[in-house]
Design a protein that fits this description.
Layout lengths: L12 H27 L1 H8 L4 H35 L7 H12 L3 E4 L5 E4 L1 H49 L8 H22 L5 E3 L9 E3 L2 H58 E2 L11 H15 L3 H52 L6 H14 L4 E2 H19 L5 H8 L1
Parallel strand pairs: 5-6
Antiparallel strand pairs: 1-2, 3-4
Keywords: Coiled coil
């Protein structure tokens, strides 16, 4: 749509002819735009839909605007037709004709009946401005509604189809409403999508986010907040179902691994209990931690998991297996730590034995193996380390005395720093 020239003095014949040509082109452009609006898919959908909410209110206003727009256009066309008739009366327009044409083309010559007894007067330029305004607001609403209807329902339908496939898959592995949280989630997503589609169809304008600073018709985007939230929720459920399916495929192997881990933990605890008895018999004056037995609750849960597998209750087996696998690894770690703690005194004794023999070999390399003082201290330390029960504190002092004497006899061959390292 265009804009006519403002009013001016009496027009000459050339000005009239140029104005009529321009107005004729403008008339065709306006008519084309109005017909396009009339045939717009969004407008036809708005006319046929059972609208609610903000869309219903705004469409009622827009319908009145479109009706008024056609009334304005008819008045515009009538005035243009009148002007053309005056211009075609004679080849050379008279002064009276030019005055009349100037009034029609530039004055407020267009009167449009309003509601009741009211009427409005416009110049052709003013009328075009008014039609441009009405057309822009009407087109904006039509384009906006059509954009929402073109985008959201189709996406909702695709998500609903995916939802149905997920529900069937969930049902096949025992994930049902009231029995599994994911089954409840699928029911909630179904209700939400059904309600969302109904709302989008009846009130599309409620799902539109206008673009800031945009004056173009339909400037903005559909509001997909609810859709996106439910799509993410469905994706979470799909991952849960995939996990359950993986359990169905790998359940036997995972149960075998669980039994193996728990068996290793039991054997390690048994070894720790045996070692504790050995430590109590061989090591004196030391605290040896008590070794607890294997937790029966894990065996009970393992039996429950095996029962779930036999009954194909995959949705129950999935979280139980995940929990058991973590608990079994923790139990194996606890058993190993218990064995390490129990055998620590034996490790200390072994370290002292090794240190004593290492120093014996060192003094032998320097020809001091037969030194009576060294032999005496070596024998004393060895008796303590190879006797039962062994007092580690006393034995360690005996080894240190042997080291110190060896360092003194070696003289300059060992620095104080060397001795410190030897005693480490």
């Amino acid at each position: 749509m265009g804009v006519t020239d403002p009013a001016g003095p009496v027009m000459d014949r050339d000005e009239v002819d140029r104005a009529l040509a321009r107005l004729g082109q403008e008339h065709e452009a306006i008519e084309t735009s109005l017909l396009a609006l009339q045939d717009h898919a969004g407008r036809r959908l708005l006319e046929g839909a059972e609208l609610t909410g903000v869309t219903r209110e705004r469409w009622q206003t827009t319908e009145a605007r479109i009706t008024l727009l056609w009334r304005y256009f008819d008045a515009y066309a009538d005035t243009l037709r009148s002007a053309r008739e005056i211009r075609t009366r004679r080849r050379w327009a008279s002064r009276e004709d030019l005055v009349e044409l100037t009034g029609l083309l530039r004055g407020e010559s267009v009167t449009v009946a309003g509601s009741g007894t009211l009427s409005e007067s416009f110049s052709l330029a003013g009328l075009v401005d008014r039609m441009n305004e009405l057309y822009a607001t009407s087109l904006d609403l039509v384009v906006t509604a059509d954009a929402v209807w073109s985008a959201l329902p189709a996406r909702i339908d695709l998500l609903a189809a995916e939802l149905q496939r997920t529900r069937k898959l969930a049902h096949s592995v025992g994930v049902r409403p009231g029995e599994h949280p994911s089954g409840d989630d699928l029911e909630r997503i179904t209700r939400t999508l059904t309600r969302l589609r109904e709302d989008v169809i009846s009130d599309p304008l409620a799902f539109w986010v206008p673009a800031e600073g945009s004056s173009a018709p339909g400037g903005g985007r559909p509001d997909t907040t609810v859709y996106d939230r439910e799509a993410r929720a469905l994706e979470d459920v799909r991952r849960e179902i995939d996990a359950v399916l993986t359990v169905r495929q790998d359940a036997e192997a995972r149960l075998i691994r669980l039994r193996d881990v728990l068996s290793r933990a039991d054997r390690t605890l048994a070894e720790a209990r045996t070692a504790r008895g050995e430590v109590l018999a061989k090591i004196a004056a030391t605290e040896v931690p008590v070794v607890s037995g294997p937790p029966t609750v894990l065996q009970e849960q393992l039996a429950t998991a095996a029962e779930y597998r036999r009954q194909a209750q995959w949705h129950r087996l999935s979280p139980l297996l995940e929990s058991l696998e973590q608990k079994a690894e923790d139990e194996l770690l606890r058993a190993r730590e218990s064995l390490t703690a129990v055998t620590a005194p034996l490790a200390v004794r072994a370290e002292l034995r090794g240190r004593l023999d290492a120093y014996k070999a060192k003094v032998a390399r320097h020809g001091l193996a037969e030194d009576p003082f060294l032999v005496e201290r070596y024998d004393a330390a060895r008796r303590m380390l190879w006797s039962a029960p062994c007092d580690l504190r006393v034995a360690e002092q005996a080894v240190l005395r042997y080291q110190q004497l060896a360092a003194e006899l070696l003289g300059g061959t060992g620095t104080p720093q060397d001795r410190k390292g030897d005693q480490a």
